[in-house]
Amino acid sequence: MSEQAHRSQDAVEAFVPPTYPFDRLAPMAERARAHDGGMVDLSVGTPCDPPPAVVLAELASSGGERGYPSGVGSARLLDAGRSWIERRFAVPLERRQIAACVGTKELVAGLPHWLRLRSPGRDTVLYPAVSYPTYAMGALLAGARPVPVPLRADGAMDLAAISEEDAARALCLWVNSPSNPTGDLDDLAAAAEWGRRSGVLVCSDECYAEFTWVGSPRTILESGTDGVLAVHSLSKRSNAAGLRCGLYAGDGEIVSYLAELRRHAGLMVPGPIQAAAAGALEDDEHVMVQRERYLGRLARFADLLGALGLPAPLPGGGFYLWVGLDADSLASLVGDEVAGEPLGWRFTRWLAETAGTLVSPGDFYADSAADHVRVAMVQPDERVELVAKRLGLG
Fold first, then answer.
1. Residues 214 and 296 in one domain
2. pTM attached to this predicted model
3. Which of these ranges, 59-68, 71-80, 116-125, 298-307, has the smallest mean pLDDT?
4. Are strands 228-233 and 246-250 parallel, antiparallel or unpaired?
């Protein structure tokens, strides 16, 4: 290799993965675990309630472990997904318009890479300014530009704020409704219309759709399938995050392109898990039970926070409380301020030390949200009551 080539190679900086957000909570988790009864973890949206019995039965008896599974998804899984979408949203789909993924986080993180292969002249991922961190990380992992879209006062994306240059360079626009972390509901029809007008694929992350509290569950597919993908997960709907199985559906040409690429990459949901996922999608009763659990926990913890002088409005959807903080309300509650510590981290530290409870600081989701915390209401009711007891509110 020539000296010039060596210099050129040395000038290219290697990508250094940032610290995983929840790893930053380790010192506070240690303090929380020291409490009698251990830590109550409300930081990560990991379901703690049991999955439906059919999931365990299918895992034990499917026989799907013997051969290679379908990369696109088994006929039963795809038909179960189509049937659920039609049952829940009144949107009929052809089988070519739906495919399986190895958990939706894998799809969210990998999609910009696949889309750059399809549209090499584009290099931008648009996403909500306060949102799930993987939208931006997927862009970075693909060597693309993550560009946040500002939010309006109602929590919906301000699509008019997207510049013509960013739209022309966009691989996709992510929309997330109900939102993680805010619980706000976006205007999916407006996003679909903007995408078609701008020639940009709109990817709608709808993993919390079953837990929509204001109005009926919605999907972007209600506005037609051209130029859109809806992404759905069993992790939240069926308390099956460990299965790592999701579905993406919509524009048949896009679905087919992605499915074919992913087959070459060996991205396959294991056979027994495909059977278990189909069984979960074929049953709705367990979802109705889970809805009641989350609604009760959201209301209970909102009351606890209110008693601390921290108003926590119930979300439009999802199982998170998105709690705004101000210095005055925290002063008497939290005590001494650590120099330079954002309000979200200040409250997180106090809650871990005082109540053995871990929540997520808002700057995990955007620098502008450093005065918020996200509370995931995933723990069983008795653990929520343990927090109340520790706070003297039980």
1. no
2. 0.94
3. 59-68
4. antiparallel
Taking alpha carbons only, the member of 141, 118, 90 closest to residue 259 is 118
191 vs 50, 178, 179, 187, 198, CA distance in Å?
35, 14, 14, 6, 10
Q: pLDDT tier at 288 (50, 70, 90 boundaries)? A: very high
Please indicate, yes or no, whether residues 171 and 125 belong to a single structural domain of this protein: yes
The secondary element (H helix, E strand) that includes residue 255 is: helix 252-264
> What's the pLDDT score for residue 381?
97
pLDDT > 90: percent of the chain: 90
Cα–Cα distance for residue pair 359/322, rounded to 1 Å: 11
pLDDT in tens, 5-43: 445 555 678 889 899 999 999 999 999 999 999 999 999
Residue found under tokens 């991205």:
267
Burial of 193 (0-12, 13-18, 19+ CB in 10 A): middle
Asked whether the beta carbons of 281 and 273 are under 8 A apart, the reply is: no
Cβ within 8 Å of residue 243, ≥6 positions away: 55, 103, 234, 235, 273, 276, 277
pLDDT value at 136 more than 80: yes
> 236: which 2 tokens?
């939240």
**pLDDT score of 168:** 98
The amino acid at 74: S
Number of domains, the chain: 2
Element (H, E) at 376: strand 372-376
Residues 224 and 340 in one domain: no
Query: Which residue has tokens 């979200």?
Result: 344
What's the CATH code of the domain at 60?
A: 3.40.640.10
In the numeric block, the tokens 């597919």 are attached to 221
User: If pLDDT is split at 50, 70 and 90, which confidence band does 94 have?
Assistant: very high
Question: Is the CB of residue 117 less than 8 Å from the CB of residue 209?
Answer: no
44: domain range? 3-50+286-390
Crossing angle for the helix pair 104-118 and 134-141, nearest 10 degrees?
Answer: 40
Distance CA 198, CA 244 (A): 33
Q: What phi and psi, each to the nearest 5 degrees, are found at residue 74?
A: -65, 160
For residues 202 and 170, the answer to whether their CB atoms sit within 8 Å is no
Q: In whole angstroms, what is the distance from residue 108 CA to residue 92 CA?
A: 24
